[in-house]
Amino acid sequence: MIPDNLKYTEEHEWVRLDGDVAEIGITHFAQDQLGDIVFVELPGVGSKLESGKRFGVVESVKTVSELYAPIDGEVVESNALLSQDSESFDPEAVNREPYGSGWMLKVRVADPSQIEQLMDAKGYAAHTEGS
Amino acid sequence: MTATQVTPHRTALYHEHLKAGAKMVDFAGWEMPIEYTGIRKEHEAVRNSAGLFDLSHMGEVYVRGVSALDYLQSLFSNDLSKIEVGKAQYGCMCNQQGRVLDDMIIYRMADQYLVVMNASNREKILAWMNEHLREGVELDDQSMATSLIAIQGPRSQVFLQSLVDFDLETIPYYGFHHGKVGGVAGLVARTGYTGEDGFELYLPWDEASSVWQQLLAMDGVEAIGLGARDTLRLESGYALYGHELSEDITPLDASLGWVTKLEKEFVGRDALKSYKEKGIQRCLVGLEMDGRSIPREGYPLHVDGRQVGTVTSGTFSPTLKRGIALGSVETAFRAVGTEISVEVRGRYEKARVTRLPFVKGSVRRV
């Protein structure tokens, strides 16, 4: 449940780099810990993310959890399935496919070296072990 | 929880929970299942069929003796003289200031009473009851010898009937019966906390697993964790100690006037009476969100730019598929339909005062 081709943070976000755009989401481990996800709040297109800073929240039935930016960048797209104004609002996509249809943001990367510093799959597996 | 208590207690069903793949959490000093297959799925199982709850962490204290009734009457906000043997009653114990020490159910038996209290308040209430002990009263704390299993949901009677040799239909709402469940002698009560019809089974500690296994083996019965217990009670508009109730407020502030009988004598009565005469300041209301935001405990409630209350419990309602809350507000804002804004992370989200319960389940009224 930890894809090899992604990078990970200690706060359980994943990053997938494609050219100069990075896709961001939360890991399988995170969605499993949260349980049924019912609401996600994300910044709009054009917003600036700052590595380590709060950029949104994800809510399960029971709890509210903060999302922390894995890298610096500018939001170019957010997942319509998670938008509360969307007809296709389906936050459970994060539970079903955390690395697929449950992605959260696409961000124009400011500094690609920040991504290299994130954990790889092996490192993240070790990070979540025992928890 | 006391400071000396390092490891949490485990109920007799602890291993059953692990077998069923439960996520366990510390709750009031007990290691309890928060969820098994997911809160939404478990919630729906109780609304549509039947769910099984381990509530063995709750406190059970028997009160006996010639003065048992007078003694309980002097501590309890409701009027136990109004119920007959074989029936139970909901109410509170208050301190001298009329603030809530705990809410509880008291079962009236032929020769004794059973007081069932919140796990988080067990030691406090035991100390309180001991402090007020009088001649002709004996307390018997059976909390650690009593397992409590609840089966709740519209089909619970059908499932439970197959394990008992008496007719469950003869037990009215808030009534109970001593009998065998799946071969285990216990107390079967038609009480609950979900808004659905159902039963609570008080059983000897060590024999509960067998009853749990027999019920869970039935097709249509699911194990339910504390997560869904909370969403179910919230949809039903039931108060939970530590949220809607605390030593900071009176039962009158929490809309529990219906179980606060000021015409009888009990600790806190005088304070409550004079408070009521001056005018009750706050009440509990149900709130339903207009949009998709989810109200949470502690979020401020505003009307015309002024804070008029606070969310005491909030959640996503699996049945209504939107955010709902219980809130403590100034009594002027209690009318159904009143628009109140919930402050969610600095934004004002529209909500409306709603009639309680939010969801009308299969619970019997008689």
Q: Characteristics of this structure?
A:
heterodimer, A: alpha+beta, OB fold (Dihydrolipoamide Acetyltransferase, E2P), six-stranded antiparallel β-sheet, globular, B: 366 residues, alpha+beta, Gyrase A, domain 2, Alpha-Beta Plaits, Elongation Factor Tu (Ef-tu), domain 3, 18% helix, 34% strand
Explain what this protein looks like in three dimensions.
- The complex is a heterodimer of chains A (131) and B (366).
- By secondary structure, chain A is of the alpha+beta class.
- Chain A has a single domain (7-112), classed as RNA polymerase II/Efflux pump adaptor protein, barrel-sandwich hybrid domain (OB fold (Dihydrolipoamide Acetyltransferase, E2P), Beta Barrel).
- Chain A has helices at 28-34, 93-96, 113-116, 121-128, and strands at residues 7-8, 13-18, 21-26, 37-41, 48-49, 54-60, 64-68, 73-78, 105-109.
- Chain A has a six-stranded antiparallel β-sheet with strand order 1-2-3-9-8-5. In chain A, strands 4-6-7 form a three-stranded antiparallel β-sheet.
- Chain A is globular, with a radius of gyration of 14 Å.
- The two termini of chain A are 15 Å apart.
- The relative contact order of chain A is 0.26.
- Chain B is an alpha+beta fold and 366 residues long.
- Chain B folds into three domains: 14-56 and 144-235, Probable tRNA modification gtpase trme, domain 1 (Gyrase A, domain 2, 2-Layer Sandwich); 60-142, Alpha-Beta Plaits, CATH 3.30.70; 281-354, Aminomethyltransferase beta-barrel domains (Elongation Factor Tu (Ef-tu), domain 3), CATH 2.40.30.110.
- In chain B, strands 10-11-12-9-3-13 form a six-stranded mixed β-sheet, with helices on both faces. In chain B, strands 14-17-16-15-18-19 form a six-stranded antiparallel β-barrel.
- In chain B, a hairpin with a 5-residue loop joins strand 5 and strand 6.
- Chain B is globular, with a radius of gyration of 20 Å.
- Chain B starts with 13 loop residues before the first helix and ends in a 12-residue tail after the last strand.
